[in-house]
Amino acid sequence: MTNESIKALLVTICQYNTVRITQTFSRDDMDWIQVKCVPNTSVLELTYLENQTIEHYESIDEAADVIEKSLYSHVTV
User: Fold this and answer.
1) Residue 77, in any domain of the structure
2) CA separation (Å) from 18 to 4, 14, 28, 30, 73?
3) Using 50, 70 and 90 to split pLDDT, how confident is the model at 49?
4) Based on the structure, what is the number of domains in the chain?
5) What pLDDT does residue 73 have?
6) Does residue 76 register a pLDDT over 80?
7) Residue 37's CATH number
8) Which position has the higher pLDDT, 32 or 77?
9) 10 CB contacts (<8 Å, ≥6 apart)?
10) What is the mean pLDDT of the chain?
11) Radius of gyration for the chain, computed over Cα atoms and rounded to the nearest angstrom
């Protein structure tokens, strides 16, 4: 998945921040990161499913970069 595709998904999630949309990104056929928008904000909440670590991002570009690096690097979070 390209960085632009990830950004497009994140934009959609933030546009509908009054409903609970969750996007799950997979790595090596395993659910890896779950993303949702904090209700009524533009803050993206990323949950790393392997260890339940939660991070928040106000920037779609930054969140997309983090997701892309996590999905395509061989280093675990």
Assistant:
1) no
2) 24, 9, 32, 28, 33
3) very high
4) 1
5) 83
6) no
7) 3.30.720
8) 32
9) 23, 35, 44, 60, 63, 64
10) 93
11) 12
- Contact status, residue 38 vs residue 46, Cβ threshold 8 Å: no
From residue 10, how far is each of 40, 69, 74 by CA, in Å? 15, 15, 23
Q: Which residue has the tokens 């960085």?
A: 3
Q: Establish if 39 belongs to a structural domain.
A: yes
State the Cα–Cα distance between residues 57 and 63, nearest whole angstrom.
6
Per-residue pLDDT, averaged over 9-23, amounts to 94
Tell me what the mean pLDDT of segment 54-60 comes to: 98
* Residue 20 belongs to domain spanning: 3-72
Strands (E), the chain: 22-27, 30-37, 44-48, 53-57
- The pair of structure tokens assigned to 42 is 């533009």
